[in-house]
Amino acid sequence: GEMAEERPVTIVTCTAPVNIAVIKYWGKRDNDLILPINSSLSVTLHQDQLKTTTTAATSRDFTEDRLWLNGKEADIGHPRLQACLREVRRLARKRRGGSSQEQAPLNLSYKIHIASENNFPTAAGLASSAAGYACLVSTLARLYGVEGELSEVARRGSGSACRSMLGGFVQWQQGERPDGKDSLAQQVAPETHWPELRVLILVVSGEKKQVSSTAGMQTSVDTSALLKHRAEVVVPKRLELMVQHIQEKNFEGFGQLTMQDSNQFHATCLDTFPPIFYLTDISRHIITLAHRFNAHHGCTKVAYTFDAGPNAVIFMLADTVAQFVEVVRHSFPPATNGDQFVRGLPVGSASLPQELLEALGTEPLPGAVRYILHTKPGPGPQLVDDGSQHLLGADGLPC
Ligand code: DP6
């Protein structure tokens, strides 16, 4: 309509991080509320390298709810997205309980426009649903003036998303209640706790993952006796140990347990019937390389972990990065010298001693690793103050 007829649009933008589990979540006891069969623990990654940005706008003039993902309009009717929207609005109503309608920052019945994008390619196969839902919930909460415990809401979008609501080292307590009120994320330590910790993501070549996490874990719960044993017996002990290793900044303990838990998660996938394969030959080459690298050094210098896909996430201390990147470059030489092989935080140069090269002993696999992203632990979701960063314009449409 005419400019003069337009009524104000309220706009909020937030960013949220990716997280990588070192004690894995795999399996639900309630599919609708997304309640897990075991607690899990993750490291929140820095948003300078990996983040989702979400803008939400609302106005009396909007005629329908609309959603744009990475610039393309998408279906806003997705049940998990609707669950998050409904829960944030419910908290907003609860909060405004006694207060009069005029005090409310805005009308909860106005239609909403949401735009969300990642600063990393979706095709890279890096888990984006955790950052996506954490960002959606953070943005909606700001828009509707809701504060406090929100991991419970993010959990309704994607289980792992509840852990992206906090920075640093984060535990998702499985909880006991059937209503999920105690199935929440808690910070174990802030991102400043272990300043030397670094993360390399090795993005490998190959097709997209075959089975989604949601579908895969359902089949695992239905068929894997190993998963049941893991959830009941193994994870409770490991969680306690992992928290201790983090508190003590014990890389030897942290690294070993991280690798063992990743391996057990993939073992439960193999124990699932029919079996699920997320690791590829390239993933297994990376595992072998890490163990040979550690054997050469006589201690745990690097620790890998893999989620529901073939990309490796490798933890190490800052003083190991340059040499390990050189090892990766040697073992998986870049296929093209066109685009950047090493991205993210700067990496120093290192030369590999002959003894190390012999210890690695593998034939190079050119092109198997597409690129390396260097990052570190980081903070939780952030409000974006700068209005020029909004993904929606004053008209409520993507800009
Ligand atoms: C292997 O959180 O993606 O990354 O709750 O069904 O959305 P849903 O699953 P999702 O599962 C993540 C599984 C994992 C391990 C982890 O992040 O803990």
User: What fold name stands as the CATH topology of the largest domain?
Assistant: Ribosomal Protein S5, domain 2
CATH class of the largest domain: Alpha Beta
Runs with pLDDT <50, length 5+? none
**Count of alpha/pi helices:** 9
Strand share of the residues?
15-25%
> Class by helix and strand content?
alpha+beta
What is the global morphology? Answer: globular
Describe the protein in words.
This protein is α+β, with helices and mostly antiparallel strands. It has two domains: 10-191 and 382-389, Ribosomal Protein S5, domain 2 (2-Layer Sandwich); 197-375, GHMP kinase, C-terminal domain (Alpha-Beta Plaits). It contains nine helices and 17 strands. It has helices spanning 79-96, 129-143, 151-154, 213-223, 225-247, 251-271, 281-297, 321-331, 354-360, and strands at residues 10-17, 19-23, 28-30, 35-36, 40-44, 51-59, 66-69, 72-74, 111-118, 169-172, 185-189, 197-204, 302-305, 312-317, 342-344, 369-375, 382-383. Strands 8-7-9-6-1-17 form a six-stranded mixed β-sheet, with helices on one face. A five-stranded mixed β-sheet has the order 13-14-12-16-15. Strand 13 (302-305) and strand 14 (312-317) form a beta hairpin. The mean pLDDT is 93. Bound molecules: ligand DP6. Ligand DP6 is lined by residues 21, 24-26, 34, 40, 127, 129, 158-160, 213-214, 307-308.
